[in-house]
């Protein structure tokens, strides 16, 4: 019953008006990303989502995947929809033309990923993980490995996975037990058990290319002895076609809170043949290529669940007649007013919208940085993009997914009792969104990554890559009366973020627990200020568009109102977050574990 | 796999040290509530919960209820557990001795309700709803009705329900269509469809006493024409035993996000025989007796899910070995440190605990007011209790349940990926908690009830019943250096709440949408300050106990640290909430519905 309509107009606003993609077609790798091409992708992609992928979202939730004798069957319709998606060439959208991709910018891939996730998050994970595995092989593989594995992954004929977690180790991969024993022919025999492997086994592709972390016996202890391996479900014959079953099997699938349409597998490796990807004992480095892209992708998943939940909550709020407006009857010819007349319903809807539109801007900005890392003509530009992206990745992952869950629940609330019933589809968004706070590094880990790694990294340059542009924008626009309503609160919030950063540097240096204790609140401040920066820029553009007399003034007027809502009703949290993080770690650390 | 242990020590601390129940045994109706009796109830009740009721929580979630031909079968073990609960006489704990109850104070009933809900929320709803129906008949029924229905409800042989919602009307009961046609013998024939009827049909009791809202044809329009009826599943024979099936049937049950062990029924009434309860067209008044008690009960459900989720998260956090403390290895003989060494894990746990212990205090305080309304020796005391309770009921309902959901999700987060898997039981707490924000009046409605009804009610006396004691406490303790760390932040937060209240009065008077726009943030401020008031009192007691050299100093020391955490890390939200609510309704109200 829920629907999804791709927010094409908003995508175009962010891509062209905010990020200036329409002016980048002279950049290497951006030649084909013309406004017409982007329109076509968003329109056609959006249609596929609304008509084919989204209608399977509830089916997937209800049926789930089924496991039998090591085989996994996906829900009714998934295979056919995947065939359609694959046949249209969507898998190769931003993949390297050398391996059959269309070579479009990653930023377009991010927009497409948002649409797919909003339509059907469980479904979107099959190609999503393939994309991650593709990226790791593309970056770290030998030419032969790339020729062997990538073309079929780019078509979507084969899918990919990431195998990190084991029953006793998730965050702490140094505890890993899976081992890889070198063979005379240069291959390895992989043995061990991996858990929580999304898309680990299914019936939609001819082969599954597992990327597996394992330890080569005799290597360094802990995380420094971990290597990454390519381990296909089927070994290939001389022509490169899947032929012999490898020593890997899906032992069972998990029964979980949501994303039922995606198989979450226990994978048993027993003398499975694999090939080293990248360098020996440098597996974490290669894995991080996947993980960073995946973390951005997971952030987008969080955003997507808020977006689709918002769209449906709006429809319901306009349709559901219940009670009368407290400021006087609005629709006297009906038995009651639609609930969208109530300020609290509107507050809920605007909270979601102010988040999704701000997050869409930040997410696409991050997508563009991924392109810049690869394609910026000068080294300084590539490095700057890399540093800014490194810094913002944990913020996007954790802030977007915390909000995605919270706001999907907010949208569900607009339905009253009906929101709690499966049939209406709203509670599924909440359950599906919940995993995004956990996988690819639980959000507490993201916060630690931000304060413990990303802030000090590159001698603080990461931070300056974000703080400088914000500061420059504030300085440039501070005196402009038209922009004051947005720039002033941004400047105040930014000052508090700087204060928080200084505090972290000072206290965290002396005692790392101080940084740990403040990390989650600090990350939330960071997310709010980053969205505030996006909103201030978008509000400025909207005002200019209205002065220019652009088409569709309502779009820009709504943008302005939503911007005001963000600054008035969401950004103020920065103040209390600073107070909270400033309180320090004492209350947290002084209790014995037994006192809890 | 999850466990539950009743927090008996904390119950006793709140009941005796904070609320002084041990000094009230000379009050009428409190004679039997001796410390020994309360100990026995908490210990024995807690044992029943841990050993019998809680082990069925996951069973109930997994199996759910099943519907066949109008009959509902509850999950395996529910009937037997209910028999045990009933046989031990728990149903009558705080019921009127005239109808077989034990006549204990309601405040004890609230403690018991928290334990039951924490152990198994879906199970606890069967007796919970019976309790509500009992209270409505007890207050509004004729002597004959009371003699007929109450004794069997007090034993638990019969259960009760509330029938309000219809497919097209939930919040707005004026739209109701169910009709009640008067018969010559003084009874009515009830016809209509009710939805979302919890425990509407099941296999655990000999009869089900439905309280049904319906309209008598020819009566006033809208909500003023609604009456309440007693409509049993089985009509009674001359001896008062269930005999003939009445014209009411369960048409189907809902498939929902959580509380699978409780049947959520569509109830079809077709010429069902019913009897008017209370006055004609005054059904809402009688229904509110149930609803107010039910709203307090739902608040306690929210608290209970946070409590049980906390207990399990603590066990996991002490047990799970993963990574090392960032301030240096804590358990060098193990492959990793338990995750409870990490400040962010501790922050999560303390957030839950600071809420549950504060909420427990406020919830039991509210339970005591229920007793005072009935039993306080002088009228002024009864009135004061009623006014304070009226004011705090929407706060407890909405704030406790919003936090219950949020914090159950926080506890789940401590489990990483395992939290998302059914088997571990953590995600069930989140799903079960989610309904508490919706039923008995969605939380947005609670916020409107607070600002639109409860604040102005009784010429503002409600508010003074809460503000005066807070103010008095602050004045009394402000100069005490020992108390300053708690009283000062309380005083600041209280001042902001007063500011918010003044603002509401001022702006809301001119434009009701202003009150509506601020209502949710205002309610949250209220909840925080109310918990702050409880925490400041508890901290004071804890300090005194430590000076006295009380037994178990660790209990009081932990109380103090948790109090500090609350004041440092949770109460500061009041500041940003005031800023947000002060922004007014403009951004919310100026958009056309079409712009959303």
UniProtKB/TrEMBL annotation, chains A, B:
Gene3D superfamilies for this protein: Acyl-CoA dehydrogenase/oxidase, N-terminal domain (1.10.540.10), Butyryl-CoA Dehydrogenase, subunit A, domain 2 (2.40.110.10), Butyryl-CoA Dehydrogenase, subunit A, domain 3 (1.20.140.10)
Functional summary from the UniProt entry: Involved in the assimilation of dimethylsulphoniopropionate (DMSP), an important compound in the fixation of carbon in marine phytoplankton, by mediating the conversion of 3-(methylthio)propanoyl-CoA (MMPA-CoA) to 3-(methylthio)acryloyl-CoA (MTA-CoA).
Domain Acetyl-CoA dehydrogenase-like C-terminal: 466-592
Keyword Cell membrane tagged: no
Residues covered by the Acyl-CoA dehydrogenase/oxidase N-terminal domain: 79-157
Chain ranges of the Acyl-CoA oxidase/dehydrogenase middle domain: 162-271
InterPro entries named among the record's database cross-references: Acyl-CoA_dh-like_C_dom, Acyl-CoA_Oxase/DH_mid-dom, Acyl-CoA_Oxase/DH_mid-dom_sf, AcylCo_DH-like_C, AcylCo_DH/oxidase_C, AcylCoA_DH/ox_N, AcylCoA_DH/ox_N_sf, AcylCoA_DH/oxidase_NM_dom_sf
Enzyme Commission code(s) on record: 1.3.99.41
Cofactor(s) the protein needs: FAD
Catalysed reaction, written as an equation: 3-(methylsulfanyl)propanoyl-CoA + oxidized [electron-transfer flavoprotein] + H(+) = 3-(methylsulfanyl)acryloyl-CoA + reduced [electron-transfer flavoprotein]
Pfam families: Acyl-CoA_dh_1, Acyl-CoA_dh_C, Acyl-CoA_dh_M, Acyl-CoA_dh_N
Entry keyword annotation includes Oxidoreductase: yes
Keywords: FAD, Flavoprotein, Oxidoreductase
Molecular function GO labels: flavin adenine dinucleotide binding; oxidoreductase activity, acting on the CH-CH group of donors
Family: Belongs to the acyl-CoA dehydrogenase family.
SUPFAM superfamilies: Acyl-CoA dehydrogenase C-terminal domain-like, Acyl-CoA dehydrogenase NM domain-like
Every Acyl-CoA dehydrogenase/oxidase C-terminal domain range: 282-450
Protein name per Swiss-Prot or TrEMBL: 3-methylmercaptopropionyl-CoA dehydrogenase
